[in-house]
Amino acid sequence: MAVRPRTRSNDYSTQIRSRNRLSLPHNSRLSTFDRVDKLTEMSMSNYLGCRAKLKKRVKVKGQLASANDMTFLPGTDHSRLIASDHKGGRLVVFQDDRRTGKEILGGVRPYGVASIDSRTLVFVDENLATGGLIKRFSIEDEFGSTGRVVSQWDNNAGSGGGSNNADTWRPRGVTVTKSGQIVVTNVHPEAQERLYMFSGDAGGSTSFGRANGPGDLVFRCPNYVTADEIGRVLATDAEGNCVKVFDPRSRYVSEFGQGGGGQKDKDARLTRPAGIACDQRGNVIVADSGNRRLAMFSQDGRFIQDLRPPQKMGLHTAGVAVNPSADRLSLSVHDTVGNLGKLLIYDYICA
Fold first, then answer.
1. CA 345 to chain centre
2. Within 13 A of 219's CA, how many CA atoms are on the CB side?
3. How crowded is residue 304: how many other Cβ atoms within 10 Å of its Cβ?
4. Are 104 and 144 a contacting pair, CB within 8 Å?
5. Could you tell me if 234 and 243 are in contact, meaning their C-beta atoms sit under 8 angstroms apart?
6. What is the model's pLDDT at position 15?
7. DSSP reduced 3-state for 6
8. 267 DSSP assignment
9. How far apart are CA 123 and CA 184, in angstroms?
10. What is the pLDDT of residues 41-82, one digit of tens each?
11. By the 8 A CB rule, do 113 and 71 touch?
């Protein structure tokens, strides 16, 4: 009987499912936290990065006063995109590659936005009087065109929020980890705590990423934040010109984006990075605003390529999002003062 040779699958979804099934022996003498660390290490060893290319699908102009951040909603086709329009004071949904969006919430000042599931969002609503609120938004129809705010909170006021802590609190970016934790960046220049992790609506919170301390731990100006497939938190530091990485237990791991002396290292240098996203293949995609490009790094911080080099962008890159099936990417761009917000949607093709 002929023996079929073993081949390596190129089906990334199969590889991802295999990684999610990683486990340790039941008799492993490891604490709960050490088991998390070991599984994270095993997952990283199986992560696959790749080069990619973009093919433009839709260019949205004149719909947004400023295009700040965006998120794809999980679903059957992963084509619904929610964009935050800070200067326009609203959240806008774009469906099925249409160039015209529909406002789903007005009277707000949104910055970061992230999806919890196919019917629930969390976003940052800036309020200069109180600092700002984190709000959970429930979508009430299958097309994502109507909804309401169901809860809100800040960093110390508990459910409802509204305390006047504008002296140390100004939230900007937000993400949701695989375990359901909500992570928010704090950009206030006087704040000591730079990142907050909430276990739910104003539930227990943990702050990490300090304004002062050992060099590697210092956040000069955290901007936007994302979480990868293995639970790590990655945040851009706009003034530190880098991306800082934390493990699932909120411990500092590494940073990248500062480059070095060689040409390859120069290509890796970030200048005022803004939006950040991770795909299912282990790639980290950064909106390198100061260099007007979209840069791709491997999971361990090695520069891979410019997805959109400066000569093809012209404007400053702002927010970036990859849909759950990792075949579509959205990018927002603007001029020097944050106007002329444009939204670009691409087919995202890994080589």
1. 16
2. 31
3. 18
4. yes
5. yes
6. 39
7. coil
8. H
9. 9
10. 444 445 556 788 888 888 887 778 888 899 998 875 667 899
11. yes
pLDDT greater than 50 at residue 189 = yes
Out of 179-183, 188-192, 316-320, 328-332, least confident range? 188-192
Question: Are 245 and 236 contacting, i.e. CB atoms less than 8 angstroms apart?
Answer: no
Mean pLDDT of 206-235: 83
Dihedral sign for Cα atoms in the order 306, 310, 315, 316: positive
Most confident of 8-12, 53-57, 205-209, 269-273: 269-273
Q: What is the 3-state secondary structure (H, E, C) of 116-170?
A: EECCEEEEEEEECCCEEEEEEEEECCCCCCCEEEEEEECCCCCECCCCCCCCCCC
Give the 3-state secondary structure of residue 183: strand
SS3 category, 298: coil
Is the predicted pLDDT of residue 166 greater than 80, yes or no?
Answer: no
Residue that is written with structure tokens 């070095």 in the block: 260
Could you tell me how many residues make up the chain? 351
Q: How far, CA to CA in Å, does 213 sit from each of 193, 217, 218, 220?
A: 11, 6, 6, 11
